[in-house]
Amino acid sequence: MTAILVGFGAALLAALTIRLSMPFAARWGLVDRPGGHKGHRDPVPLVGGVGIFAAVALLSIGFLAGTWHATLASMLAGASMLFVLGIVDDRRGLGVLVRFAVQGAAVVVVALGGGIVLHDLGALVSTDTLVLGAWALPFTVFAVAGVINALNMSDGVDGLSGALTVVTLLNLSVVAVAGAAPLYFLVGIALLGAVAGFLVFNLRCCGRPRALVFMGDAGSTVIGFVLSCLLIGLSQGDAGAMSPVIALWLFALPLYDTVATIVRRAWLRSSPFAPDRDHLHHLLLSSGLSVPQCVSLIVGLHALFGIVGLIAWQLQVADRYLFAAFLTVFAGYLFLVSRPWRFVPLVGRALAGRGAATAGTGRSVSRGPTGSAAQAMPSGRGGPGRVCASSRTVIVREQGAYGVVLPVVRDDSGIDADRPRLGRRRGA
Fold it and tell me: Do 297 and 398 belong to one domain?
């Protein structure tokens, strides 16, 4: 009963705070304006994070007023630091070093004050536990920053980041109940309810064509921080409910997408922090899927990975086998998404069912919704350009290029149609 009250209370508080904040978003400077790589056409309030943090913070303060708990207090302190960081970043934009410094400071607070530290990684390579020793705190900073930025990178289409969070928290709640970790369970339920309240305004459902609000960096940073605290707290110490490799499976898809993106950007010799439109959700949109279909597919795949992790956890599969399987799946994922000229038409044929990609010679031309020629692209040196009929998207493969997707206008996909980009490796 307590969990139900906490969840519904958090959802109500988040939804109410978001609704009351929306009229003041422009005055506060919390508005995401269209342009650059962004897909939306109108300014959107960035107050989702305000509602999520307000709900979690108020419930945490109420709990601490009755019973003091150092771990919860340190989590709230770290989340407050990152909320302020996110608000400033949403208003003005901050550099990578500033963001990472504050994230590191928040980790130090929760590590020293709440004891949430990655002391070991489990028996990943042998039967012996891989103890981090003096590297425990630096590795914890790295892990938390990784989760935060993975969640931030997944926040590319309406409802995706929030839905991924909900699935992850549901799985973590199962682990917390089975592992008799009531504090982490209640924190997870509070965050779950708050994110659910946010999704009321962010999901494309019930005939709504666009999201009413975005969570912003304030939201994604706080959620990523709390998620990482739960993942670490439930996997460490003698009372740890699961091994660290299970935590990887419960957060698998955002990690896969983030690491694959970093690898691709390194291959192209570009900044790993520069925004682009080559994430999994962008490729699925280019294949012809609508935003709700894209979100459903990714969230379903993420849930499948989580179920695999929970089953392996119950069956007590050895860490080294689970870790080898995790890396094998990632290798397959990287192989697919690193070849968009094959992946996009493949998904278009398998899921959209609108026909196969057709090969062209000389110049490949994509037709827009009105049937007019959109962008023309000369054939690459390594082969002709291709037109994906299902998505009205030009897919070109060139020698020395990692891949290129040239989208055209599509009202419901958020694709930046008039800004085609060639993913050519520099110096190629």
Answer: no
Give the C-alpha separation, 203 to 336, whole Å.
Answer: 28
* Residue whose C-alpha is closest to residue 357's, from 385, 403, 390, 388: 388
Identify whether 363 is part of a domain.
yes
Tell me the residue type at 371.
Answer: G
**Distance in angstroms (rounded) separating the CA atoms of residues 31 and 24:** 10
pTM of the model: 0.81
Same domain, 79 and 141: yes
Specify the pLDDT at position 99: 93
Count other Cβ atoms within 10 Å, centred on residue 180.
Answer: 9
CB within 8 A of 300, min separation 6: which ones? none
Q: Is the pLDDT of residue 381 over 80?
A: no
Res 372 pLDDT > 50: no
Please state, in angstroms and rounded to a whole number, the distance separating the CA atoms of residues 407 and 232: 40
7-66 per-position pLDDT tens digit: 999 999 999 999 999 999 999 999 988 755 555 567 899 999 999 999 999 999 998 888
CA distance 385 to 260: 24
Domain span at residue 125 reads 2-337
pLDDT band at residue 275 using 50, 70 and 90 as cut-offs: low
What are 199's two structure tokens?
A: 């999704």
> Is the pLDDT assigned to residue 279 strictly greater than 70?
yes
| Shared-domain flag, residues 379 and 268 | no
Which of the 8 DSSP states describes residue 405? E
Q: Give the integer Cα–Cα distance in Å for 209 and 291.
A: 10
Residues 261 and 372 in one domain: no
Going by DSSP bridges, is the β-strand pair 363-367/373-378 parallel, antiparallel, or unpaired? antiparallel
Q: Are residues 368 and 331 in the same domain?
A: no
Contacts of 382 by beta carbon, 8 Å cutoff, 6+ apart: 397, 398, 399, 400, 401
Number of domains in the chain: 2
Using CA atoms, how far apart are residues 64 and 58, in angstroms rounded to an integer? Answer: 10
